[in-house]
Specification:
Elements: E1 14-17, E2 25-27, H1 58-68, H2 118-139, H3 147-173, E3 175-178, E4 182-187, E5 193-198, E6 204-209, H4 211-215, E7 218-224, E8 235-242, H5 243-262, E9 279-283, H6 297-315, H7 320-331, H8 335-362, E10 366-372, E11 375-382, E12 387-393, E13 397-405, H9 406-409, E14 413-420, E15 431-437, H10 438-449, H11 466-493, H12 498-521, E16 523-526, E17 530-535, E18 539-546, E19 552-556, H13 559-564, E20 566-572, E21 579-586, H14 590-597, H15 599-607, H16 615-621, E22 636-639
Length: about 650
């Protein structure tokens, strides 16, 4: 009997020796149960194409074949025997994808798990609820099925069908598992993808759910490790698993980290934090809505509400546009008054929508420090129709940022963001408080930093008036450019000659005001543990960065800064925005500030001979000119 040739999907990697039979190789398990393959008999048809083969002893082959009852009497060669059942009970599959380890798998690994199939039902119900108004209009109210009524319903139905099919396909093709060292996920039909995260690199395990999925007992779990996949995916997402599985998964991952740290690991960072678990720093206050409902997004919110209302009314055969037009005609408003009233009405509608959205988003908000995978974590929980819980490891905390946008600065409202590894400042998880009164934000920031000196309350060193002159120069330049563009348009379009000077008269005071606001915002301070910087005209940022988290310093000068005796010092770190600048400070003090963060590196840098003019170079080099890469005239000095 000729040996059976293995298929191309069956790996033949040698995985060691069989227990009890020293020196006898055993094949590792592949996509299907595999076994050792004997050499083909003379004239046999098996050629081993598509897989590696493992040569075994004749005695071993005969014993395996006898167990399977497949011995061809009289033939010296034996067919492949089936592999014994895996005692671990794991699936006989291996994913063959680009980032996958070797083809074989350890039989002791846990089995792959599916997502919860209830997600398909939840999405189907969502589509039905979206179609409910149209179904009521057609079947109960008996509205005439005109194209204006049917095409939105058809669009929703097609969109829902595509989403339901995608969910079914995702449920069929997605598997995940948690091993002792990795969290793994594989998915895809035509293009198979595999992603894994080392458990010791996990920084957060968060769970959230929309209303229908909450009612179905489902959660979406996001496992973050500060990395991005090729699809720019910053976290490994399991959407969706049952609530029990989500809790069990989070507990298992956090418990694994706690065991590792108890065995001697300290986590990432430079020192432990003397913080107590169980502290509640903030809870929702209803008046916070006043700081979160008045902004430019009100117009976008109003546009969505008006479109949804218009479509709903037209389904039932009503004409809201005609009502509004007839009401304006009866009121007798002029064009200008109509436009003003329309803008005010739209803005008020958007403000009301933002207020409702705020309570929906932050209902039950709670910021607290609780025990976690690395000592303690900052945890926020909030949400009414969609719940969300985010955990941020204290041992990865590098600082904090207070953000004060100009339109809300007069209200003394502030947002609070944490500077932590694994979370970009653009991530929603970096925000630990919505827009709140500044005293509340300062109190919470001080409690989160948990330092006795309260760096955010340290007095700031003001920057020289040359920084104001630089900003006023930019304001004049921008005004000149816009005024010149307006004058050029007048020549080409025949507009009134008043357009160009009106443009200048409007732009100049705005640009000058922003220049003054930008200069008043500048400042920096240094405490025993943190570097504090503040800058920004339209959005004033005050950041307190831990000195031990600074990985590099860059001293930068533009041509105008060099002439004005200014310099910008950027402190780089593997957290948040990645760099935190002290903008337009006095150039003769730049090197001293850099030395506070990296004293040894800056002292060596000062001692090196380099070329390049400029006040920073003369200061750093103590009489020697220092430039960037030795190029004469370079305006940047780097300390790494």
């Amino acid at each position: 009997m000729a040996p059976t040739a293995p298929t191309g999907d069956e790996p033949g990697t040698v995985g060691g020796s069989t227990p009890g039979e020293e020196g006898v190789p055993a094949a590792r398990r592949g996509d299907a149960p595999g076994a050792d393959t004997a050499p083909a008999a003379p004239g046999g048809s098996g050629n081993g194409t598509g897989a590696s083969t493992t040569r075994s002893t004749p005695v071993e082959e005969i014993e395996k074949a006898e167990k399977a009852g497949r011995v061809d009497e009289g033939a010296p060669d034996v067919a492949r025997a089936p592999m014994e059942e895996d005692p671990a009970g794991s699936e006989p599959e291996v994913v063959h994808e680009g980032a996958e380890p070797a083809a074989g798998e350890d039989p002791d690994l846990p089995p792959w798990q599916r997502l919860n199939p209830r997600m398909i039902l939840a999405d189907a119900l969502r589509v039905l609820f979206s179609l409910a108004p149209g179904i009521v209009a057609l079947l109960i109210v008996r509205v005439e099925p005109t194209p204006g009524v049917l095409w939105p319903l058809g669009f929703i139905a097609v969109w829902g069908a595509i989403g339901a099919a995608a969910d079914v396909l995702r449920w069929i093709t997605t598997r995940y598992r948690v091993t002792d060292t990795y969290v793994e996920r594989r998915t895809g039909l035509f293009v198979r993808t595999y992603r894994s995260i080392r458990r010791d690199r996990i920084r957060s395990v968060d769970a959230d759910a929309r209303l229908l999925r909450r009612l179905a007992g489902l959660r979406r779990v996001r496992i973050g490790a500060g990395q991005s996949s090729m699809a720019m995916e910053s976290a490994l997402v399991l959407d969706a698993v049952s609530r029990e599985d989500a809790l069990r998964l989070r507990g298992r991952l956090l418990e694994h980290r706690s065991v590792d740290l108890a065995a001697g690991g300290t986590g990432e960072g430079d020192g432990t934090r003397d913080t107590a678990a169980g502290e509640v720093y903030a809870e929702l206050r209803p008046w916070w809505v006043l700081y979160n409902m008045a902004n430019v997004w009100a117009f976008f919110m109003a546009a969505g509400l008006l479109w949804g209302t218009y479509w709903m009314l037209t389904i039932f055969g009503l004409d809201p546009a005609g009502w509004i037009a007839s009401w304006i005609e009866r009121a007798g408003f002029g064009t200008a008054a109509t436009v003003v009233l329309a803008l005010v009405a739209v803005w008020l509608l958007g403000v009301a929508g933002l207020a409702v959205n705020f309570f929906n988003e932050y209902a039950g908000f709670r910021l607290e420090r609780v025990p976690g995978e690395n000592g303690t974590v900052l945890r926020t929980t909030h949400g009414l129709l969609r719940t969300r819980e985010v955990n941020r490891d204290d041992h990865r905390l590098r600082g904090i940022t207070l953000s004060e946008p100009l339109p809300w600065r007069w209200m003394h409202s502030t947002e609070v963001h944490v500077i932590t590894t694994g979370l970009s400042m653009w991530s929603a998880a970096a925000t630990i408080l919505p827009r709140v009164p500044k005293p509340t934000a300062s109190r919470v920031a001080d409690a989160v930093l948990a330092t006795p000196e309260d760096p955010l309350r340290a007095p700031l060193t003001r920057h020289p008036r040359a920084a104001l002159r630089r900003r006023l120069g930019w304001a004049l330049g921008i005004t000149a450019i816009l005024t010149g563009a307006a004058a050029w348009l007048i020549v080409g379009t025949g507009w009134s000659a008043a357009v160009w000077w009106v443009t200048g008269a409007v732009v100049l005071p705005i640009a000058t005001g922003l220049a003054v606001a930008g200069h008043l915002a500048l400042g920096h301070a240094v405490t025993s543990s943190h570097l504090v910087s503040r800058y920004g005209a339209t959005n004033r940022h005050t950041s307190a960065l831990r000195i031990g988290a600074v990985s590099g310093v860059r001293i930068r000068q533009s041509l105008l800064q060099r002439r004005l005796g200014l310099a910008t010092v950027e402190f780089t770190t593997a957290a948040g925005w990645g760099r935190y600048p002290v903008v337009d400070m006095a150039a003769e003090r730049a090197a001293d500030l850099a030395a506070l963060a990296l004293p040894e590196q800056v002292e060596r840098f000062r001692a090196e001979r380099a070329t390049g003019p400029g006040p920073v170079a003369r200061r750093v080099g103590a009489g020697k000119e220092v430039g960037d890469g030795g190029a004469p005239g370079a305006g940047t000095s780097n300390v790494r």
